[in-house]
Amino acid sequence: MLPVTDESLKKGADIIRNGGLVAFPTETVYGLGADAFNPQALARIFEVKNRPYFDPLIIHIASVNALEEVADFSLINEETRKKLLLLADNLWPGPLSIVLPKNKKIPGIATAGLQTAAIRFPSNETAQKLISLSGTAIAAPSANPFGSLSPTRAEHVRSGLGDKIDLILDGGVSQIGLESTVLDLTGEKIKILRPGGTQREAIENLIGCIETESGGQGAQKDHAFSSPGQMKSHYSPKTPLTVFSREEMINQPTEAICAGIERLALLFFDNATRDEWQKTEKHLKIAIIKVLSKTGDPAEAASNLFETLHEIDNSNISHIIAQLAPQHGLGEAINDRLIRASNI
Ligand code: TXA
Ligand code: MG
Q1: For residue 218, is it left (φ>0), alpha (ψ between -120 and 50) or beta?
Q2: In the chain, where the domains are located
Q3: Per-residue pLDDT tens for 186-243?
Q4: Which of 145, 158, 159, 221 is the most buried (most CB within 10 A)?
Q5: Ligand nearest to the CA of 234
């Protein structure tokens, strides 16, 4: 693990060019990168993450021009091309992955055999430099063992994947703290396959109404999904988790629900709800109380979500009760992750 310097970036780029694996910071979460055109290097990503081969990777580029290297424009019609350029002009670089017909040069293992690829131009400067210096596109899933919480710090990567990879570039805490939004431009209808760091409203302002993959939230599908990030077991902390609405959080008699639970953690969305909850007398000892955002700011809550779940996971807690966010803006992505993490 090395801090980000010109030297460590150069080392990282050498490793990528030679078919190795480098974990690097992005504005969403840390990625585990390999040369997107090297099938052996890509196979290693699946191996070290213990990731099923049917789960496709996101391809990262460092300029809009590089899109032509990874997507096949001959398969994109005029109308879609216009929408793509609008999105790229306004929302890239940033936390948006766009699913497009893939360029034939991208090996099938990168896209799990799909003829499409999810492509992202990240805004994190280290990520951009690493991609540029490598002189290639970098395929990178989140740098965590399959199914577990995404890493928002280099330290999370080290404890999850440790010595299985060639280098971890430590670029501090991920600014957004939640994965990118995955938007599919290849179907008849434009769809969000995974809510994430780019808000639905920002996309709809540019290209009009879009859909969310039906049953996306919390749906349990084993095979027939178009974005396997929809598997319910994804993004899970090790500790069992139950989600509550704001009203349930305040009104439910915690004692009755938590009978038998030894060390309970309560995860509030905002201080206001916590304060309401505290007004009634509780007989149960709560081991940890956390708040995602004092003022209920969704961006702050998103950036603290995985961070806080990692912390709770390391605190010997037997159960987490987490409050859902208001279901709009980034709240959509926060709730998506909480519901997937819950074991209802
Ligand atoms: O923010 C992020 O997206 C991070 C950083 C590292 O960029 N990456 C990330 O990758 O979260 P990963 O592999 O954990 O999640 C990728 C998601 C999965 O849900 C996958 O199914 C979906 O993107 N995906 C990738 N390629 C796809 C494709 N061709 N069609 C549909 N979904 C795709
Ligand atoms: Mg992931």
Answers
A1: left
A2: 2-212, 241-342
A3: 999 999 999 999 999 999 999 999 988 864 443 333 333 455 555 555 667 889 999 9
A4: 158
A5: 2
Instruction: Give pLDDT, residue 252.
Output: 75
193 in contact with ligand 1, CB cutoff 6 A? yes
Q: What is the CA(99)–ligand 1 centre distance, in A?
A: 9
Q: According to the model, what pLDDT value does residue 173 have?
A: 97
pLDDT value for 235: 66
Distance 257 CA to ligand 1 centre (A): 36
Q: Establish whether residue 99 lines the binding site of ligand 1, counting it when its CB lies within 6 angstroms of any ligand atom.
A: yes
pLDDT of residue 12: 98
Ligand 1 probe mutation, 24, 178, 179, 181, most atoms within 8 A of CB? 179
Q: Which ligand sits nearest to residue 29's alpha carbon?
A: 1
Ligand nearest to the CA of 112: 1
Question: Can you tell me which residue has the tokens 């290849």?
Answer: 186
Indicate if 241-342 has the same CATH topology as 2-212: no
User: How far is it between the farthest Cα atoms of the chain?
Assistant: 66
pLDDT at 221: 35
Q: Which CATH class is domain 2-212?
A: alpha beta
Is 2.40.110.20 the CATH number for 241-342?
no
* Whether the CB of 117 sits within 6 Å of ligand 1: yes
pTM: 0.91
Whole-number Cα distances in Å, 143 to 46, 71, 157? 11, 24, 6
Q: Which stretches of the chain score pLDDT less than 70?
A: 214-235, 253-258, 281-283, 343-344
Distance CA 322, CA 276 (A): 15
Residue in 231, 145, 229, 116 with CA at minimum distance from that of residue 182: 229
